[in-house]
Automatic annotation (TrEMBL):
GO terms for molecular function: ATP binding; ATP hydrolysis activity. Its main location: membrane. GO terms for cellular component: plasma membrane. The lineage of its organism: Bacteria, Bacillati, Actinomycetota, Actinomycetes, Kitasatosporales. It holds the Pfam family oligo_HPY. Keywords: ATP-binding, Cell inner membrane, Cell membrane, Membrane, Nucleotide-binding, Translocase, Transport. InterPro entries: AAA+_ATPase, ABC_Ni/Peptide_Import, ABC_transporter-like_ATP-bd, ABC_transporter-like_CS, Oligopep_ABC_C, P-loop_NTPase. The keyword ATP-binding applies. SMART domains: AAA. Residues 5-254 form the ABC transporter domain. Belongs to the ABC transporter superfamily. This is ABC transporter ATP-binding protein. It is found in: Cell membrane. It comes from Streptomyces finlayi. One of its GO terms (biological process) is peptide transport.
Length: 324
């Protein structure tokens, strides 16, 4: 495995207490594989990714437990300077908001070129040629003419392509894309997603695609991990989860996707809100919202049950959910 996260816990010290943002996450990604991480806002998707990248705010953040194996090494045991070398070169991240991630006072060419100057010791002149090459690669029209322009001179979609180009510059083994298309118009979303998927295949990278939008991942992901209250509640190959979810929360998420053939019908949404991480309900964290909850759900935390080859569900009633 390229990346293996094991029993990862992350908590934040806040004025009101300890917020348990990640509570024992396990996931893995291999070369050329795409793992989609799904879940409502606040479920711990980004915090898990930040821990993998080594960019967590610490403090207030803390990793009391867990391991993050990347190419066989536990990243949590490395010193900061070793991690810095891995960041950018071996693993890179694409964020939702390109405008705040890119430097507004440096031209796009300078920012792309800097990757090669800093990590590869390239000259300024050669690095500019590399920048144009990268812009071509992410299909920014007239790259040669636009390489000297600043981030605000590009459209949202083009800026997101520049972020992708930055992430790909050093041909990392792993890309983490955190809601990479959320801020874009629907039509542009699809183009950027297609580009990302295509480049990933070409370079045989591992991709972790974080999103709250199940509609986005159906075509690009190999497998899905659904997160709730800092835990993985279901994990499965993408086709199987769509055909037959084994967790009531996944089922709820799937039923909330707008469908073209059901226009005008009221959209099903999961009732209630995700829990307060300072005070996660006992038993199954989803029980206050779950239409299938029974007594045992309020007292016993469901472990991840093996549902089938490569499929797990953290629900006491996964069988009933599958059959429903
Ligand atoms: N720097 C921080 N300080 C305190 N709490 C944080 C910090 N970063 C994230 N959190 C909390 O961790 C929880 C999980 O956040 P996050 O991983 O960003 O969720 P999402 O699934 O939407 O990406 C949230 O409740 C958030 O408030
Ligand atoms: S364990 Fe119980 S509350 Fe949790 S998802 Fe399953 S049925 Fe619902
Ligand atoms: Mg997030």
């Amino acid at each position: 495995m390229l990346l293996e996260v094991r029993d990862l816990h992350v908590e934040f010290k806040t004025r009101d207490g300890v917020a348990k943002a990640v509570n024992g996450v396990n996931y893995s990604v291999d070369e050329g594989e795409t793992l989609a991480v799904l879940g409502e806002s606040g479920s711990g998707k980004s915090v898990t990714a930040q821990a993998v990248m080594g960019i967590l705010d610490m403090p207030p953040g803390r990793i009391p437990q867990g391991e993050i194996f990347f190419q066989g090494k536990d990243l949590l045991k490395l010193k900061e300077d070793q991690r810095r070398k891995i960041r950018g070169a071996e693993m890179a991240m694409i964020f939702q908001d390109a405008l705040s991630s890119l430097n507004p006072v440096l031209s796009v060419g300078e920012q792309l070129g800097e990757m090669f100057v800093v990590h590869r010791g390239m000259s300024k002149k050669d690095s500019r040629a590399k920048a144009v090459e990268l812009m071509d690669r992410v299909r920014i029209p007239a790259a040669k003419e636009r390489v000297g322009q600043y981030p605000h001179q590009f459209s949202g979609g083009m800026r997101q392509r520049i972020m992708i180009a930055m992430a790909l510059a050093l041909e990392p083994k792993l890309i983490i894309a955190d809601e990479p298309t959320t801020a874009l118009d629907v039509t542009v979303q699809a183009q950027v997603m297609d580009l990302l998927a295509e480049l990933q295949r070409e370079l045989n990278m591992g991709l972790i695609l974080i999103t709250h939008d199940l509609g986005v991942v159906a075509d690009v992901a190999d497998k899905i991990a659904v997160m709730y209250a800092g835990r993985i509640v279901e994990t499965a190959p993408v086709k199987e989860i769509y055909a037959n979810p084994a967790h009531p929360y996944t089922k709820g998420l799937l039923e909330s996707i707008p469908r073209l053939d059901q226009k005008g019908q009221e959209l099903y949404a999961i009732k209630g809100l995700p829990p307060n991480l300072l005070n996660i309900p006992p038993g199954c964290a989803f029980n206050p919202r779950c239409p299938m909850a029974q007594d045992i759900c309020r007292s016993k935390v469901p472990p991840l049950f093996d549902v089938a080859e490569g499929r797990q569900s953290a629900c006491h009633f996964w069988k009933e959910t599958l059959d429903a």
